[in-house]
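Section: protein folds

Sequence with per-residue C-alpha coordinates
===
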Amino acid sequence: VQLVESGGGSVQAGGNLTLSCAAPALTPSGYCMGWFRQAPGKEREGVAAIFDRTYYAGSVKGRFIISEDDSKKTVFLQMNNLRPEDTAEYYCAAAWPAPPYWANVMAAGTYNHWGQGTQVTVS
Protein backbone atom coordinates (compact mmCIF):
# COMPACT_ATOMS: atom_id res chain seq x y z
CA VAL A 1 0.00 0.00 0.00
CA GLN A 2 1.57 3.26 -1.09
CA LEU A 3 1.18 6.25 1.20
CA VAL A 4 1.95 9.62 -0.34
CA GLU A 5 2.60 12.48 2.05
CA SER A 6 2.66 16.18 1.40
CA GLY A 7 2.50 19.48 3.25
CA GLY A 8 5.71 19.66 5.23
CA GLY A 9 7.85 22.75 5.34
CA SER A 10 9.34 25.46 7.50
CA VAL A 11 7.29 27.75 9.69
CA GLN A 12 7.85 30.14 12.56
CA ALA A 13 6.76 29.27 16.06
CA GLY A 14 3.05 29.82 16.47
CA GLY A 15 2.39 29.07 12.83
CA ASN A 16 0.30 26.35 11.27
CA LEU A 17 0.83 23.55 8.76
CA THR A 18 -1.39 20.80 7.44
CA LEU A 19 0.04 17.46 6.35
CA SER A 20 -1.79 15.18 3.96
CA CYS A 21 -1.44 11.46 3.34
CA ALA A 22 -3.11 9.83 0.38
CA ALA A 23 -3.66 6.07 0.41
CA PRO A 24 -5.60 5.27 -2.75
CA ALA A 25 -5.22 1.50 -2.40
CA LEU A 26 -6.98 1.29 0.94
CA THR A 27 -10.50 -0.03 1.08
CA PRO A 28 -13.10 2.46 2.33
CA SER A 29 -13.10 0.96 5.80
CA GLY A 30 -11.18 -1.48 7.86
CA TYR A 31 -7.93 0.30 8.52
CA CYS A 32 -6.25 2.53 11.04
CA MET A 33 -4.21 5.59 10.11
CA GLY A 34 -1.61 7.36 12.20
CA TRP A 35 0.97 10.11 12.13
CA PHE A 36 4.36 9.64 13.71
CA ARG A 37 7.40 11.86 13.99
CA GLN A 38 11.08 11.38 14.56
CA ALA A 39 13.52 14.07 15.54
CA PRO A 40 17.29 13.58 15.15
CA GLY A 41 18.63 11.37 17.90
CA LYS A 42 15.19 10.48 19.18
CA GLU A 43 12.88 7.52 18.78
CA ARG A 44 9.89 7.61 16.50
CA GLU A 45 6.84 8.66 18.46
CA GLY A 46 3.14 8.52 17.81
CA VAL A 47 1.55 11.91 17.27
CA ALA A 48 -2.05 11.14 16.36
CA ALA A 49 -4.16 8.29 15.08
CA ILE A 50 -7.66 7.76 13.79
CA PHE A 51 -9.42 4.44 14.15
CA ASP A 52 -12.59 4.00 16.17
CA ARG A 53 -11.94 7.55 17.39
CA THR A 54 -9.09 10.00 17.35
CA TYR A 55 -6.03 9.63 19.54
CA TYR A 56 -3.37 12.22 20.38
CA ALA A 57 -0.04 12.37 22.13
CA GLY A 58 -0.18 14.56 25.19
CA SER A 59 2.34 16.98 23.71
CA VAL A 60 0.08 17.84 20.76
CA LYS A 61 -3.40 17.46 22.22
CA GLY A 62 -5.34 20.68 21.74
CA ARG A 63 -2.98 21.87 18.98
CA PHE A 64 -3.10 19.11 16.34
CA ILE A 65 -6.17 17.66 14.67
CA ILE A 66 -6.26 14.41 12.72
CA SER A 67 -9.05 13.89 10.24
CA GLU A 68 -9.81 11.84 7.18
CA ASP A 69 -11.68 12.03 3.93
CA ASP A 70 -12.92 8.51 3.29
CA SER A 71 -13.97 9.25 -0.26
CA LYS A 72 -10.49 10.46 -1.16
CA LYS A 73 -8.76 7.95 1.11
CA THR A 74 -6.74 10.77 2.57
CA VAL A 75 -5.82 11.54 6.15
CA PHE A 76 -4.84 14.99 7.33
CA LEU A 77 -2.87 16.32 10.26
CA GLN A 78 -3.65 19.94 10.98
CA MET A 79 -0.91 21.35 13.16
CA ASN A 80 -1.64 24.61 14.92
CA ASN A 81 0.45 26.78 17.21
CA LEU A 82 3.61 24.94 16.23
CA ARG A 83 6.57 24.92 18.58
CA PRO A 84 10.28 24.40 17.91
CA GLU A 85 10.03 21.04 19.68
CA ASP A 86 7.60 19.91 16.97
CA THR A 87 10.50 19.93 14.50
CA ALA A 88 10.87 16.42 13.11
CA GLU A 89 10.38 14.16 10.14
CA TYR A 90 6.69 13.27 10.07
CA TYR A 91 5.50 9.92 8.80
CA CYS A 92 2.09 8.72 7.80
CA ALA A 93 1.30 5.12 8.63
CA ALA A 94 -1.48 2.66 7.91
CA ALA A 95 -2.48 -0.53 9.67
CA TRP A 96 -4.30 -2.53 7.02
CA PRO A 97 -6.12 -4.79 7.45
CA ALA A 98 -7.40 -3.09 10.57
CA PRO A 99 -5.69 -4.08 13.81
CA PRO A 100 -7.62 -5.68 16.66
CA TYR A 101 -9.58 -3.32 18.83
CA TRP A 102 -7.09 -3.69 21.68
CA ALA A 103 -4.11 -2.59 19.57
CA ASN A 104 -2.06 0.38 20.70
CA VAL A 105 -2.66 2.70 17.78
CA MET A 106 0.00 5.10 19.04
CA ALA A 107 2.71 2.45 18.75
CA ALA A 108 4.73 2.15 15.56
CA GLY A 109 4.62 -1.63 15.72
CA THR A 110 0.88 -1.60 15.06
CA TYR A 111 1.41 -0.27 11.54
CA ASN A 112 2.51 -2.21 8.49
CA HIS A 113 2.59 0.50 5.83
CA TRP A 114 4.61 3.70 5.97
CA GLY A 115 5.02 6.86 3.96
CA GLN A 116 8.35 8.29 2.95
CA GLY A 117 8.26 11.09 5.50
CA THR A 118 8.00 14.86 5.25
CA GLN A 119 10.11 17.35 7.15
CA VAL A 120 8.55 19.92 9.45
CA THR A 121 10.84 22.62 10.80
CA VAL A 122 9.67 25.17 13.36
CA SER A 123 11.97 28.05 14.23
Summary: DSSP finds no helices and eleven strands in the chain. The radius of gyration is 13 Å. The CA atoms of residues 31 and 97 lie 6 Å apart. The mean pLDDT is 93.
